[in-house]
């Protein structure tokens, strides 16, 4: 299990919060629980060093939420995918606890280094009411299944993984199902308001988010699988290989 909570159910509850109620505030206990949970999230790659800083929003350029979680990482192969995979677990866990969150890509922290690791991205968050979370996930704007998934569909997996969040809703993931194999690709042909030079950075984080959704969905449906991550892929390909899952 990725964590002790049934994060699958949070696929249908979470949303990216753009507005927060300033009259609500997180308690010291809630903040301590967040910090404790950071010790429990499962990395995609165990050989990449990660550091976190939980700061007041005012210590960054972020304009949303009460606090920001700043993520710093060692820059190794697939480190951005690793960050996305880890931080999405926290995003879903926060939804379980009625804490609204939003990936905030363009924000700047007060410090660009933490224990010699480089700043990557932040998650803005704040206390929220239950009624503020998503009520009907099918109303979220997402690509049609045919645009992202080729091959036989998987019940309780195919339709829900496409609701993973992505930078400016760019949805760069493409999936090919062939018998016992599920192959995940990142499309480099997505249209987005994100500057083209920065799109690979954010979409690589998005792919980690998607892998998190995929694995939670597979486990929820009791599929057994083995994951293989691709390395040293050509950056100019139309579709970059990210991962392959072998189901058994």
Describe this structure in words.
- With about 250 residues, the chain is α+β, with helices and mostly antiparallel strands.
- The protein folds into 2 domains: about 130 residues, 3-Layer(aba) Sandwich (NADH Oxidase); about 110 residues, NADH Oxidase, CATH 3.40.109.
- The protein has 5 helices and 10 strands, in the order αββαβββαβαββαββ.
- Strands 1, 2, 3, 4 and 5 form a 5-stranded antiparallel β-sheet that branches.
What's the CATH class of the largest domain, please? Alpha Beta
Computed structural class: alpha+beta
Radius of gyration: 17 Å
What's the name of the CATH homologous superfamily of the largest domain?
NADH Oxidase
- Strand portion: 25-35%
Q: Could you please say which CATH topology of the largest domain applies here?
A: NADH Oxidase
What's the order of the H and E elements?
HEEHEEEHEHEEHEE
How far apart, in Å, are the first and last alpha carbons?
17 Å
The number of helical segments is: 5
Major sheet, described briefly?
5 strands, antiparallel
Low-confidence stretches: none
Number of strands: 10
Give the integer mean of the pLDDT values: 93
Q: Which percent bin holds the helix content?
A: 10-25%
Name given to the CATH architecture of the largest domain: 3-Layer(aba) Sandwich
Query: How would you describe the shape?
Result: globular
Q: Write down the domain tally.
A: 2
Secondary structure blueprint with pairings:
Layout: H1 28-37, E1 50-56, E2 67-73, H2 79-96, E3 99-104, E4 113-114, E5 117-127, H3 145-148, E6 149-150, H4 158-161, E7 173-178, E8 181-187, H5 199-220, E9 225-229, E10 239-247
Parallel strand pairs: 6-7
Antiparallel strand pairs: 1-2, 2-5, 3-5, 4-5, 7-8, 8-10, 9-10
């Amino acid at each position: 299990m990725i964590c002790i909570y049934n994060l699958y159910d949070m696929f249908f509850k979470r949303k990216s919060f753009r507005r927060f109620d300033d009259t609500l505030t997180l308690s010291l206990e809630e903040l301590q629980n967040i910090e404790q949970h950071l010790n429990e999230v499962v990395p995609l790659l165990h050989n990449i060093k990660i550091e976190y800083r939980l700061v007041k929003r005012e210590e960054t350029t972020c304009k949303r939420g009460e606090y920001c979680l700043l993520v710093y990482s060692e820059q190794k192969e697939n480190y951005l995918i690793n960050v996305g995979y880890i931080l999405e677990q926290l995003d879903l866990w926060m939804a379980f606890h009625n804490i609204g969150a939003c990936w905030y890509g363009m924000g700047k922290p007060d410090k660009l280094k933490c224990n010699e690791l480089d700043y990557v991205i932040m998650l803005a968050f704040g206390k929220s009411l239950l009624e503020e979370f998503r009520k009907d996930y099918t109303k979220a704007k997402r690509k049609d299944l045919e645009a992202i998934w080729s091959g036989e569909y998987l019940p309780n997996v195919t339709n829900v993984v496409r609701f993973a969040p992505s930078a400016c809703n760019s949805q760069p993931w493409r999936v090919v199902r062939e018998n016992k194999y599920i192959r995940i690709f990142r499309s480099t042909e997505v249209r987005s308001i994100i500057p083209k030079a920065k799109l690979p950075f954010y979409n690589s984080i998005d792919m980690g988010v998607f892998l998190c959704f995929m694995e939670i969905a597979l486990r929820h449906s009791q599929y057994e699988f083995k994951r293989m991550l691709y390395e040293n892929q050509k950056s100019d390909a139309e579709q970059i290989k990210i991962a392959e899952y072998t189901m058994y």
